Amino acid sequence: MTGSTPRLRSITALAFTLFASACASSGATTGSAAGADGAGVRLRTEALASAPNPDPRVALAPGVFDAEEAAWNLRVVSKTPPSSDFVGGINSDLAFAGDLVFQGSFSGFQVWDISEPSRPTLASAYHCPASQSDVSTYRNLLFVSGEDFGARLDCGTGGVRDRVSPERIRGIRIFDITDVRNPRYIANVQTCRGSHTHSLVEDPSDPANIYIYVSGSAPVRAAEELPGCSGAPLTEDPNSALFRIEVIRVPLADPERAAIVSSPRIFTDLVDPPSHGLAPDDRAEMDLQLAGLLAQGLFVVELDGQIAQLSDELAQFWLDSLVSARGGSGAPTAADSANLRASAPELVARRQAVRAAERGGPAPGPTQCHDITVYSAIGLAGGACEGYGFLLDVSDPVNPQRITAVSDENFSYWHSATFNNDGTKVLFTDEWGGGGGPKCRATDPREWGANALFSIEDRQLRFRGYYKLPVVQLSTENCVAHNGSMLPIPGRDIMVQSWYQGGISVFDWTDPSNPVEIAFYDRGPISADQPRMAGSWSVYWYNGLIVSSEIARGLDILELVPNALLTQNEIDAANSVHLDHLNPQTQPMYVWPSSFALARAYLDQLEREGSLASARIGAVREELRVAERAGGTARGEALSLLASELDAETGRSRDANKVRVLATALRELARS
Amino acid sequence: MASSSRSARSPLGCALLLAWMASGCAGASTRRPEAAAPERADPAELEALYLARTDSARMRFSAADVEFVSGMIAHHAQAIEMAALAPDRAASTAVTTLSARIISAQRDEIAWMQLWLRDRDQAVPSAPSMSGHAGHLPGMLTPAQLAELANVRGLDFDRLFMTSMIQHHRGAIAMVQDLIATDGAIQDPATFKLASDIHVDQTTEIARMEQMLAGMPPGASR
């Protein structure tokens, strides 16, 4: 909290007097893991249950390929520098298929075979410059984003010098990777603003095509270069390339015929999108302050997260109105004052609405999204769109509809979205400063350049808290919230995320009001004295590995180390999930196959939470051990019996739901 | 497990490093992390290649790029000057928060643009010396406008601050658009990223300020 005593400011007549309230920024804490939950858990390794203190990430020694490193609860499996042509380039996003990792680069893309994760081998290095070369893959196709003005259709390195040129590509390049060692550049789709990022969308009712949502936030190119491109406001040109996204349809049998099929104006009528409201702590403090001021006899209301006092003139005007409304005359009574105190919020809201209407028209919304994460399993997408976070209905992929929007006073630039696995929460990142700035210094507020965590309730977004890398970084280290993905830890919402040169942070946001870091990996800066662009651009979980695209250093592969905050059983259960491919902007829903590890993971969680008596935990563990050894019918019977016993015990646990989930897992295991 | 490991750099690595970067070894660590993968290229050779490549990539710039970057330093300097007025004058914390973020963001970008110019052996304007005499740049406030802004308080300040900053930001966007419309400009991805980030950040901030203006409490005098 920025907790300060409310200050009264004097304003002109009829204006509200605003208090500088304590509510401008939330105090969601993101501090050390502190190991509070570790009690009673056996340490199976020497891993630490609480964040190391002092934090070893502070002031790591610099180096391009030999910077000092720090890791907690993560192990480096391999660090692979870029292939020769790509050294000195800028690595960007990742996509995965089988044992292959596609790594975009401003110089083109590289394909790594990670069947031996400790020794990735280069399958292909395709030199074809464009920023940012975000990649995604579908079957035999690879899609690559191009946005800048120097990218050439022929993949040449000479740039495009003319303002209007037939040689320029801004949009999506399409490669055939049937032979991944020899990708073929087969087509491209040009767009007005280029493609900064893109997201693949499958339409279950349309298996012959794959769709691409194109997000491009750069300026609109000249109409002489691509006919129809207009950067005019919508009021001047209804066909403006602003205020829309592009949807490309790619016929899988004939990808050369890929083309834009719709340009949904998902930003239209974004009238007065709500600020996300206060964090619970701030809410409580605001209520307390309001109550105190009302008790002092002041006429105060909450206005956009601040306390505002009615000016004397306005209060008098409304009091007089109340007097005449009850047919009275003369001075207002105490009852009139109480009436005004109660009705002031509504009166103010009405007055605000009138004023806004007088000013005319809806406020201009965003003109593009930076990134859209499509979560088809729940029919939703999260759009990170300039000053707003969107929830989109994508049940008709060609015509995404905006369901709701939020803004946030602390957010500079909404960058990307990640849902939790069951789709009840969503996390938005704020790439304050665009990724090149050092936004993790001691002087940078904890709520700026952070993640904002929301619960999804009735398809509306409810703000819960912030998470920012909980360690100070140097001014030579670009550091801000960036890309990541959920880890398939059953029963918990755990995410791994890139923070550029702030490194990689793994955190638990099961309780979105209290996210907690549980693991990290970090390097020192590139240079001792100059800020240079580097760090983890993206990091994603893929089949037991944590794969990071390091902008300058190459491809890093890490894995989780079991510890009190994350047990071997939880890691084993996670690693039982298998993905055939992964385009992180098309979020997969994790489904856990039945396994003893899954049951034991839930059991470990019940123990960590202290939700089941430790004697009972021990007994269930023993029964599981016996059942696993037994095999056959005996196993099934033992597991079913145990499940029934646990069902009967839910009332005795503080986490009845998890006990039920455990029982279900045992029943499914019995059948498997 | 917490680990923080260093090992010795090779003398060759240090020599090469010194050749490329004057102070690279001064603060060098004495240990290096374990090599996780065998048969990798020598870090010193990779580093030499990295430094040579990033150096030569920077040489792809035009006079228009230099003019844009130098001008934007002056442009940013005035935004900071405007935003610095807010803490003593603004009525709403939303405006104070906005101005604090403008100061922080644009100060960082100035440092980045100064480095951009230094990297390319161009004259580096210092921010304060530039803000006063850059009236030819789009969107810049005149000295009279600046003085007026400094003289108002409360909601009057909030409103004038935001309308002035919108004018100022629109100027920065115009500068980006002018740059894009120049043959031969903006060929280096680093320059594109700078221009594109400014374009999108300030577009976003304009929308935010327009929304804040629309929602301002009624009744201020201007």
What does this structure look like?
Chain A has 672 residues and is an alpha+beta fold. Chain A has three domains: 17-29 and 275-359, no CATH class; 78-271 and 365-475, Neuraminidase; 596-671. In chain A, 19% of the residues lie in helices and 28% in strands. Chain A is built from eight helices and 33 strands. In chain A, α4 (568-575) runs antiparallel to α5 (596-609) and α6 (614-630) runs antiparallel to α7 (632-649). The radius of gyration of chain A is 28 Å and the shape is globular. Helices cover 65% and strands 0% of the residues of chain B. Chain B has helices spanning 11-20, 43-58, 63-83, 86-89, 93-119, 127-131, 143-151, 154-180, 189-214. Chain B is elongated and about 65 Å long. Chain B has two domains: 9-20 and 38-58, no CATH class; 61-214, Ferritin. Chain B is mostly helical and 222 residues long. Chain B has nine helices and no strands. Classes of the chains: A alpha+beta (672), B mainly alpha (222).
Ordered list of secondary-structure elements with their pairings:
The complex is a heterodimer of chains A (about 675) and B (about 220).
Chain A: E1 17-18, E2 69-72, E3 74-80, E4 91-97, E5 100-105, E6 108-113, E7 121-127, E8 132-138, E9 141-146, E10 171-176, E11 184-190, E12 197-202, E13 209-215, E14 246-251, E15 259-262, H1 280-295, E16 300-303, E17 306-309, H2 312-325, H3 334-359, E18 371-375, E19 380-385, E20 388-393, E21 401-406, E22 414-419, E23 425-430, E24 451-457, E25 460-467, E26 484-487, E27 494-498, E28 504-508, E29 516-523, E30 536-542, E31 545-550, E32 554-560, H4 568-575, E33 581-582, H5 596-609, H6 614-630, H7 632-649, H8 656-671
Chain B: H1 11-20, H2 43-58, H3 63-83, H4 86-89, H5 93-119, H6 127-131, H7 143-151, H8 154-180, H9 189-214
Helix pairs in contact in B: 1-2, 3-5, 3-8, 7-8, 8-9
